[in-house]
Amino acid sequence: MLVVLLLQAAVMLPLKEKDKPIIQKLLAAGCCARCVLRFCCVSVQAAYRQPPEDSVGQDSTDENKSQDTAASQAPEDPPNKRAKLELSMAGAEPEEEAATAVRLKDGNAHVCVVCLGILQELCGSIQALKVSEAVKAGNYEFDTLVLSLSLPAQLCVREHSCWLHVKKEVREKGLVLNKDDVIQVKEAFKWIMQGMVAKELGGVAVVTKVSCTQLATACPDCFKPTKNKQSVFTRMAVVKALEKIPDAKFLKHYPCPPRQPSSSCSPREVQCLHVSVFVAGRYNKFCRSLPQTPWVIDGERRMESSVEELIAAPILSAFRADGFNFSSSGREDVDVRTLGNGRPFAMELLNPHKSRFSKVQMKQLQETINESSDKIKVRDLQIVTREAMGRMKEGEEEKTKSYTALVWTQKTIQREDISFIDNIKDLTLNQKTPLRVLHRRALAVRQRTIHSMSTRFLDSHHFYLGLKTQAGTYIKEFVHGDFGRTNPNLCQLLKTDTDILELDVESVDVDWPPPVPE
Ligand SMILES: *[C@@H]1O[C@H](CO)[C@@H](O)[C@H](O)[C@H]1NC(C)=O
Ligand SMILES: *[C@@H]1O[C@H](CO)[C@@H](O)[C@H](O)[C@H]1NC(C)=O
Ligand SMILES: *[C@@H]1O[C@H](CO)[C@@H](O)[C@H](O)[C@H]1NC(C)=O
Ligand SMILES: [Zn+2]
């Protein structure tokens, strides 16, 4: 009985004659060829890329024949490029099982007790084809692809059991010191699959990032493990538990080596996920009955649309994204218009299938948004980085905002009665959290500054009040006083009750995103 390790590799394998007992023990336990390589700590990637039947093993009673077969499998390779290792497996009793273990090549292989078949039939050209087909079906635009594998938690337990099984021998041979030194299933998977998937996709750069939850192979650009958080923790819990449990206790509850599984691990769906793309711009809102975000109370929609939906709909369809996440530099009330240069906003587009847009295409997209509704308009629409998005929120409180309020006065007023307001500069307000937002914000007093004001007389009960304020000033409360919760307020200044009838945001002085030249 002979086992030949025949590997196409420029580097010599670290496998030595002295590893023989370990290999023998692993094969006898029902490990697949690639798992044998893993536990022998073979870090030569090419070794794993060999079809499993080549990497460990030919079972034969004829030494010479076996060698001939092996050699004839890749006659084009110069002999010095091959690392060849012969191991006589003429052991006594494990021989039978060992023979079974290496009979991978006849297509009637058993399922590996450690990797549950993940490094056997689930790791090869068929699976690579499945992955690439899923990627192609998604019709994505991308340059690089990240392969990501989620593994069942059970695998950790089997790995642990197998490690305990050969720990003594492995340590004696000085191959590895810890379980962590063993090549991980996901590592081996990556080494094998990357090239295959890249080839199927016509030379796309494939890199691998691996997480362990369920067995799922996920793709493009980057895998975002937003889903299945619970399962991640489950596996984490398993890993933690395995670290804690003393070997003796583990062995009482779990067979060592692990038992032969009845079937191999079955692959779940291939999920493709493109990294988010970020889009920014500025919006105008010309409507006094449009909330910024969908207005839903007790599960019931109060307004048919919203700023974010009007902006997002054309963008989502252009980027063929699954969803979005909208944010803006402050927000206006449903009845407040945003005029001037508009309010900066940014959107995270989730799983976009199209991600490359020229300047002209972005302009067209902007036009589509502009034409889709009279209620909003968008300018400076552009693709930005995730990092750049942070600039919008940065120092937001320090920025200034300009408003125009239509004010009603109880007392009749003359032009002269209000003109003194034009001379007020840097008025500091103490604003208690407004009653209207008290249900969702903590009670606090904040100080805000009104840098300057200007008045435009309308009639004996109305005037326009222009304000330039620090961001975050509650304008409505400054005008009506909020039952004395804002101090000072316009009622006090004018010595009469005042109320706000209309409010417009004239400018949001945040210098991001940069203007897009026409
Ligand atoms: C294998 O070949 C060598 C010479 O190449 C020969 O001496 C040996 O007897 C052969 N072994 C068997 C089992 O045929
Ligand atoms: C949306 O953005 C917020 C804040 O940046 C983040 O916490 C949240 O996870 C995002 N949601 C999605 C679905 O990405
Ligand atoms: C969209 O509307 C805004 C605001 O009126 C304007 O500045 C911008 O140029 C328009 N863009 C296109 C492409 O129509
Ligand atoms: Zn295996």
From TrEMBL:
Enzyme Commission number: 5.4.99.25
All residue ranges annotated as the Pus10-like C-terminal domain in the record: 278-509
Pfam families: Pus10_C (PF21238), Pus10_N_euk (PF21237)
GO biological process, one term: tRNA pseudouridine synthesis
GO MF, one example: metal ion binding
Domain Pus10 N-terminal eukaryotes: 112-272
Span of the signal peptide: 1-18
Domain of life: Eukaryota
Region (Disordered): 51-81
Catalytic activity annotation: uridine(54) in tRNA = pseudouridine(54) in tRNA; uridine(55) in tRNA = pseudouridine(55) in tRNA
Keyword Oxidoreductase found: no
Record keyword ATP-binding present: no
One GO cellular component term: mitochondrion
Location of the protein in the cell: Cytoplasm; Mitochondrion; Nucleus
Keywords: Coiled coil, Cytoplasm, Isomerase, Metal-binding, Mitochondrion, Nucleus, Signal, tRNA processing, Zinc
Family label: Belongs to the pseudouridine synthase Pus10 family.
Protein name: tRNA pseudouridine synthase Pus10
Taxonomic lineage: Eukaryota, Metazoa, Chordata, Craniata, Vertebrata
